[in-house]
Fold this sequence. Notes:
Blueprint: H1 7-19, H2 22-29, H3 38-49, H4 51-67, H5 72-83, E1 91-93, E2 99-101, H6 109-113, E3 115-122, E4 129-136, H7 139-150, H8 164-169, H9 172-192
Antiparallel strand pairs: 1-2, 3-4
Helix pairs in contact: 1-2, 1-4, 2-3, 5-7
Amino acid sequence: xxxxxxxxxxxxxxxxxxxxxxxxxxxxxxxxxxxxxxxxxxxxxxxxxxxxxxxxxxxxxxxxxxxxxxxxxxxxxxxxxxxxxxxxxxxxxxxxxxxxxxxxxxxxxxxxxxxxxxxxxxxxxxxxxxxxxxxxxxxxxxxxxxxxxxxxxxxxxxxxxxxxxxxxxxxxxxxxxxxxxxxxxxxxxxxxxxxxxx
Length: 198
C-alpha cells in the first residue's frame, strides 16, 4: 500500500486530506515553495495527477474518517445540510397569518446545522432578549466541499494541458482558473456518465 511513495509524497497525502489544499499540503510536507506559492501549486498539481498519490489519498481519507469514528456518509450528510439549507424553514406562519422566526428549539436539525452564528440582543430594561442576526454557513463552500468529497478520485486535472514551464509562469489567479476549469469539467463528465440501469 503505497510503499513506492517517498516519505515526502506520503506526508503530502496525509496533509492533503486535512483541508484538500494541494498547495498548502506541499508546503507542510516540506516541498520547496520558492519566492511565491506558484512552485508549491505546480508541485501539488503534479502530485495530484499521479495515480499512486490518488490511491494513497483515498486510503488517507478512509483512515482519517475511521480515526474520528466517522463514516463518510455522516460527513456527506452534514455537508448536505449546509449546502442545501432552505432559509424559509427558519420561519413559521402563525394562525393569524403573521410570519415569525421559529424558536431555536423548534428548528429542524438540518436547518439548525446550517447556522454558523446567532447574535442576540438583550434589553437592559426588562432583560428580554431578541435575535438581531442569523448567519448561515457558506453554501458555495459547502457545495464545493461536497463535490470534492463525492468525487475525489475522478476530478479531472487540466494541468496536463500545460507544460511544467507554463505552469511555473502562471499567476495565482491563472492557476485558480485552471483549477476551476478542472472542477467544471468534472461536473460535466459526471453528468454525461450513464446512470446505473440506463
